Structures are given as C-alpha cells and as structure tokens.
C-alpha cells in the first residue's frame, strides 16, 4: 500500500538522500573490522547476526507487508519484548517503516525499544512521531549538539524525564490518567467519574515561561492548589525531549481558572524564573484574504464548505455605501480548534485556489475577552454599519435621547459613543441595536476596553513571522489575483521611500504565540481612556484591502521594490506587507492602537 502524500509530509518524507544519519559511522566501522578480520559481513538480505533467534508468528506478516528483513527483525524483537504488539501498529506506521531507509528505520526502532512507553496509549502514533523526529534531526545535521557549529558529534545525553515515583503517586491519589505522545504529555481529561461535556470557554489557562527541564510531576502539584484540574497538557519538543516552555491547564469551572491566574501569574517557579499565567480561549477563526470582492456570505460559505470540514460561520465586512459585497477578505469560524487547524493547514499550502485566486490564510488575531467586572463599568458604545449620512452630529442627536453624551467619534463606518452614565448607555444599546439609521441597520454593543499595548505588539510580530514563513514555503509569491482584487496602478513613477506605510511601528514582548492556540473575543469595538490618548491614530487594516500588483512578465528587468522600515526591520512593500496588514482581527481595527 502506497503512503498518502499527506502522511508522507507529516513524517518528513520529502526525500531520502541518506542511508545513515550524519555522524553514524557504522558502515565505516564494519568495513574496518572486516579488513582486520574481526567480523564477517553477512549478505545484505541477512536479517540478524543470529538467524537462530526464534521469531514470533507475526514476523512473516511483516515480510509479506514488504518490510526489509533487518527492519522486520528489529520490529519482531520489540514484539518479543512485550513493549509492542503487531495489533498496535496501523497501516500508516507500517507504510512509514517500509519507505524509511533501512539503517534509519533500525535506529528508530532501537530508540523506540529503549523508550519508556508506560504512559503511551497510542504506540503506533508514537512510533510515527519518533520517525518524524529522527528525520528532522538527520536533516538538521544529525546529533550535533549545541555549539558544535553543525559538526556531527556523538548523541547527546537524553533529557532527564519526570520523577516516575512522583507521577505514580499522583496518579494513584487522583485516579487520573497520563497519556504521552512525542508532542505532549496529557494528564487527565476527563477526571474520574466526570459526567457531562468538557468545561466550556474561560476554563482553560495558558502557562508560559516554564523551565524547559520541568515536567507535569511539578506542575500538577502547583496548579491543583487553585482548583480541580480537568486536564493538563504540557507541550513537548521531540527534538530535545524537553518541554516547549508552555502548557495548557483546564479547570472544571471559570472561577477556578480565574483563581489560577491570580495565584500563579508571575509565580517564581525556580530562582529567577517566573511563570506567565492567563486565561486562554481556543482559536476557532481563520482570516482569509485575497477573495473576490463580488462574493457574498452565502457564496463564501458554500465554496469553503467544499474545501474544509466543520465550517460553522462566515464573517464579512462591507461598507453600507459600497456596492461591493466584501472588502477582499473574510473570517471563517469552525466548530473546534482542531477543525480550524486542519482547515488552515489545507488552505495554506498554496495549492488550493478559490475562484482562481491564491488566498492568504492565517489565524485571526487574538483578542482577550475582558472580564465581567471590567465590562460592568463600560459607559461607551460601539456602533457599526454606519453610512456616510450618519455624521457625528446626527449620532449624538440620536443617542443623547437616552442620556448625556460626552463625546462621539466616527471612523469610516463605525463610531464610539461616550455616555456620562452607564445606565444611559445600556438603555441606548437595547433600544437602538438593529434599528435603521441613515438607510442601514446599525449594530450597537458595549465597547471593549483596549487590550494591553504590549500584547498588540506581540500579536503583530507573531503575524509577521507567520506570513514570512508562508511566503518562504510558497516560494515567495502568488499567482495572478482576481481582477476585482487588483490595486490601481501607481502614477508618476515609484513611490518615495518610506511613504504611505499603513502599518505603525511596534515592538515585541517575550511571548511567542506560534503554538497557534490563542483565542479572542467577538467583534465588538474597543476604546481608549482617558480622553482618547493616542486613540485616533486609526489606520484601518481592512477598509480598502487590496493585494499587491502581480509582477509584469517579460524580459525587461523589473525595478527594485521600494522598502519600508516596519516593526524594527526592513520589509519589501508589496504582497507581504499587504498580507500582514490585512491578516489582523477586526478587534484591532476597533481597539485603540
């Protein structure tokens, strides 16, 4: 059975130009030994050094499946050890072993045999993970250790694992399970005797800045002090055997999760090492750019439902004064983070075209939901879907019927209404939401207080990296866009250096959200207090989204692209900057910047 392209990519099977990983001198050593008369090399088809070893009844099945005799013999040795049964392996693992280079497969199986599989429930998937890691290490220079400058060295000492005695004591005390894969170590989920669905949004916390040599035996004891843990997932780096520096802990209630953030945020876990703990929300939404502006919500829903599974909602934005149905982008919402992640993976390959267009796909930017205490103090309304007829004067006139309005600020098709009293703001929202104003049905909601400025900087930096990676994977460009998406041609020659950059300079904090698991709230607007400090520097990411002009064809050399200094680094203006600019969540458009 041939291995699917997707599975080949999962395991890193782009090419097999090696037989042994760099640094593996087994062929040379055997040749030297043979030359000294110390060993006789058997025929390449010989399975083992000792053909007298009794095989299991499954050994012929491995040979019949097409495995090399060396690989089949090593796998049969694992069967005899009791660590693995033939029934534990699925076709994906067997296909991977069959296509893996023989010496590499034997080394992988040796590593698997020496692994602690006590808490591994899916051994077939675990073996696939070991193969993928082996392939990545081989590609990256073998077992070269830190500071070796790429020189191959003997294998480094494996990272120290958790204290198994402590783990055993915790599991016996709580009755929870521990499931280990190459990518994570999962404790619980669900707890014993749990009846009902998993905890909902707001019950999970993200824990960052975890020391790399720490395991769940220490984290469980720390986090269970704040409440009943539903599950704890420590994310692992299979290349090093250490954790990735972050984990997710789900509690049974929102209150327990909130308590954990209060108890453990900035907690000194080791001398000089402080944890970062905050509420996390699974990201269910994708940003998709470079779609024809002529497509409506139903058409977009139908098209992307054919390409991906689990799509539940499409969010588009358009100006009430514009006849176009969207602004060249949309947001896709999925039933789960897993469904969204699979959709992102499929749509982001560069091989999928939508209405003949190369699309830009990224996670919608995170937007932390304010807590109920904060929202209970809000006296500002966010109003969207406004036409040009709705001036600030007309808005103030309509809203001050419900109470004193301090100030009104309109930006394109949305506005912020500042009331003197919260009750007046709530009454206005209840009465005017969905009402017709200026020929359009307006949407009114409480505005969200602005997100932390440092967090916005982190978001933009992370988005920049993801877009750069996507461009590199795609070879640096897009094929021609849909005509309705084309930007107008510039007149009068190239633009002056550094002009017309719509992105603001941003710094970056210590966090790395590349694990793609952070969430955000809904699309209500945000405001800045007091009195619009740095508030009206609105540069709408979305209002007139247009991709870059495709390069002209022909033999004439193209002029060098103009560059702008953005976010502390020089980036070429064009496809990349437009893509990154447009890949943000609309919360950034609505919040203060």
Quickly list its features.
4 domains, 22 strands, alpha+beta, Alpha-Beta Plaits, disordered C terminus, six-stranded antiparallel sheet, four-stranded antiparallel sheet, 31% helix, 593 residues
Description:
With 593 residues, the chain is α+β, with helices and mostly antiparallel strands. The chain folds into four domains: 135 residues, no CATH class; 117 residues, 2-Layer Sandwich (Alpha-Beta Plaits), CATH 3.30.70; 195 residues, RRM (RNA recognition motif) domain (Alpha-Beta Plaits); 75 residues, Alpha-Beta Plaits (2-Layer Sandwich). It has 18 helices and 22 strands. It has a six-stranded antiparallel β-sheet with strand order 1-2-4-5-3-8, covered by helices on one side. Helix 6 packs across helix 7. The longest helix has 21 residues. The chain is globular, with a radius of gyration of 29 Å. The C terminus is likely disordered.
Give the CA-CA distance, first to last residue: 55 Å
- Give the CATH architecture of the largest domain: 2-Layer Sandwich
Mean pLDDT: 72
> What's the level 1 CATH class of the largest domain?
Alpha Beta
The third-level CATH topology of the largest domain is: Alpha-Beta Plaits
The radius of gyration is: 29 Å
Main sheet specs: 6 strands, antiparallel
Strand order within the widest beta sheet: 1-2-4-5-3-8
GO molecular function: RNA binding
Region (Disordered): 137-163
Main location: cytoplasm
Domain RRM: 203-282, 284-366, 379-449
